[in-house]
Amino acid sequence: MTAGRRGATRSQAARAAILAATSSLIERLGYDRVTMEGIASEAGVGKQTIYRWWPSKSAVVAECLIEGALLPETYAPHDTGDIVADLTEWLQRVFDFIAAPGHETMLRSLIAAAVDNPEIGEHLTGRLGASPDVLAERLRTAAAARQLRPGTSVERLTDMFMGIVLSRVLLRTPADPDDARAFVELVLTGAAPHRPTRPASAPPRSSTARQPRR
Q1: Which of 94, 127, 179, 190 could form a cystine bridge with 71, CB 3.0-4.6 A?
Q2: Number of structural domains in the chain
Q3: Does 194 fall in a domain?
Q4: Is residue 201 part of a domain?
Q5: What's the pLDDT tens digit per position in 37-76?
């Protein structure tokens, strides 16, 4: 029994070392330059030990995201009852994370990895708080509190905010201190001008108006 526990402990230690090594390599080198051989060397294990748990590099990276070994903080929106303030604070935290040294390159490499493994994209957006499960739930709460226009599609709003986050990573847009609030207000209120209320029209004049008597 003691030997069994010792073996299980060694296996868990090796698994943790592999996840830590993968996260470290991704942060330093980016997804494309990380190999299974490199992970094995960094973790101090044999390559077959990695394949015992994961079929591919992308599967290891996906589990790093699930376990929080990569992007340990989850950037979920808070719920203070003010949807504009909550989304602004959330988006600013995400922008600050992206702007930190090394993060932009790492995130771009993970987005590229999501092409091969959609699970990476799902868990990446989840860690940033822009996944349908996280962001959409906050928007549904706002809709229930009538802070959104009736009939507003929560799914479409979620897609918009996910697009803002991903475009900030991919396009390297210069940061502005007011970006977060400006994006939130633009998405929630739109850009179309308010249409003035049309005054009640006067009743149409009769085409058979009485002619003056001669």
Answers
A1: 127
A2: 2
A3: no
A4: no
A5: 999 999 999 999 999 999 999 899 989 988 888 887 778 8
